[in-house]
Amino acid sequence: MTAALSFIGFTVTVAAISWWLTRKDRMDSSEAYFLAGRSLTAWVIAGSLMLTNLSTEHLIGLNADAFNHTIAVMAWETTAALAMVLAALYFLPRYLAIGLTTIPEFLAQRFDNTTRVIASLLFLFSYAVAILPVVLLFGAEGLQSLFQVSDAFGVSPAQAKWIMVWGIGLLGSMYAIFGGLKAVAISDTINGIGFLIAGLLIPLLALRLVGDGDILAGFSQVYAAEHSKFDITGDEPGSFLPFGVLFTGLIVNQVFFWCTNQSIIQRALGAKNLKEAQKGVLIAATFKLLGPIAVVLPGVIAYHMFKDTLSSDQYLQAYPMLVRTVLPTVFTGFFAAVMVGAVLSTFNSVLNSAATLFSEGIYRSTVNPESSGRNQVRIGRLFSAVLAVAAMLVAPTIDTSGSLYIYLQQINATFFGPMLAVILCGLMTRFVNARAAKVSLLVGPLLFYLLNFVYGNAYQALMMKLFNLGEPLHFLHTLAVVFLLTLLMLFVLSQGKREPVRKSAVPVANASLNLEPWRYARVAGAVISVATVACYVLLAQ
C-alpha cells in the first residue's frame, strides 16, 4: 500500500505542478506550443535535456554492459559533455540568431524547401521506427524486470507489457498533445530531480551494503576486487563500445545528437535568451559527467555482488537484481514513479518534436503556407495523437530476443552521419549546393543501411581483410565511414562551385531574443572539457 501511495503521489505531483505552471498559457500560436513561447530558463532546459535523453534503457542497458565488460561504456555519457559544450558555444548562437523553430528550417534557408522536407521526413521516420516504440518497450520491459509488474497485478508478462506500454503512452501523450513544450519541459525537470535522487540512491545503498554500513569502505572493496572493471579504456573483444570509436563514429554520433537533433535542441530553441540557453546546456553537460555514477557504476557493483549468481547471458538482469536487493520497500513506489517519469519524459519530448517537425517542416512548408498559428497547433496535436497510437500498437510486437539498445543505436546511426554532414556543410561552407544536399540526404542513409544490415557480412569480411582486424568492425566505425563518404559526395556533386548567398540564408539578429552570450560560457565550457579529459587520464589503466 505504501509503495502504491508513493507512486501515485509522485506521479500526481508532477502532473499537478506542470498544470499549475502552464494553466494560464495560451496555446494559440506555433511559438507558444512548439517553443514554449521562448520562455524557458536555464534549469528547466537542463532538466528537460537530461530526461529527454535518459531513460530505463540507460539504467538497465548501460549498467548491463558495465556488468559484462568495463566502465568504458561511460563514454556515452562523458563524451556527450564535450558535444554539449560545442552546442552551447558554436551552434546555439547561430540557431537563435536565425530564430529557428526546427533544424530542417535552417536547411530550407541555406538550400531549399525540398531539402527541409527530406530532412523532416528522415527525422520523423527515425522517431516513428526506432525511438518512440522502443522507448515504450524499454520502459515496459524495464519496469517488469525491476518490479515484477505481472505478479503484482496477477497477469501474464505479455499482458503486463501491453498495459504498461499503453499506460505510459497515454500519459505521455497528454503532456505532449495538450501541454506543448513548456509542460513537457517542466515535467521533465521535476522528473529529472527524482531521477537524480533515485539514480544516485542505488549505488550508495549498494556500496553501503557491501561495506557493512560504510559507503567508502564498500567502494574500496569493490574497486580492489574488480580493479580491471574500472579501466575506462578497456577494449576487450566484443565490447559494446571499443575505445577506438571515441575518435571516429562516437564523435559523429554525439555531435549530431546534442547539436543538431531536433528532439534535443528544441529545448534550447525555446530559451528566453541566448544566456539562458547556454547556461541550460552547460548545466546539463555538468550532470552528464555525474551520469556514470547512476548508469555505469551500479553495473560494476552488481558484478561484484552477483558474478557467481548471474551468467554473462543474464547481464540485463544485473541492475534489476541490484535494485531489488538494496532498495528498501518504502522507496519502491517512489523509484517506480521516477522510472515511469523517465520513460514519459523521453516519449513526450520526442512526440512534441515530431509534431513540430510535421507541422512546421511539412504541413506549413508544402501543404498550407498560409496556415495560422492556431491551425498549426491543431495539426501538430493531431499528428502527435496518430503517431502516439501507432507507437503504442507497434511497441509490444517488437522482437526482444536481441539487444534493443544496439538496435536503437544502429537505427539512429543510419540517419546521423549523412544528416550531420549536410548540416555542417550548410553552416560552414558555401561550396555545397541544394542538389548535392538532397542527394546526400537520400543516398547516405541508404549506404549505411546497405553496409550495416543488407551486405553486412561481405562488408565486414572486406574491412577485416583490408585492415587485418581480429573481429568485425564496430558499427560506429561504419558510421564514421559513411559520414566521410557523405562529405565527399556533397563536394563532388557540387563540383567545387561556390554557392551564391541566398537572402533567406543570411543570419539576421532575432529581435524577440536577447543574443548576448553568457559571460562565463567559455570558462564553463573549458572546465567541463578539462574534467572530461581528466576522467580518462585518471581512470586509464
Question: How would you describe what is shown here?
Answer:
With 541 residues, the protein is an all-alpha fold. It contains 22 helices and no strands. It has helices at 2-22, 30-34, 42-53, 56-68, 75-98, 103-110, 113-147, 149-153, 157-210, 215-225, 249-259, 262-269, 274-295, 297-306, 318-326, 332-367, 373-394, 404-428, 434-454, 456-466, 475-494, 521-539. Helix 1 (2-22) crosses helix 9 (157-210). The protein is globular. The termini are far apart.
Helical stretch count?
Answer: 22
Total strands: the figure is 0
Query: So, CATH architecture?
Result: Up-down Bundle
What is the average per-residue confidence, as pLDDT, rounded to a whole number?
86
- For the termini, the CA-CA separation is 48 Å
Nearest-angstrom radius of gyration? 23 Å
Number of domains: 1
Strand proportion: under 5%
Shape: globular
Structural class: mainly alpha
- CATH fold node name: Sodium/glucose cotransporter
- CATH superfamily, by name, is Sodium/glucose cotransporter
Stretches with pLDDT under 50, minimum 5 residues:
505-509
Query: What is the CATH domain class?
Result: Mainly Alpha
Largest sheet: none
Please give the share of residues in helix.
over 70%
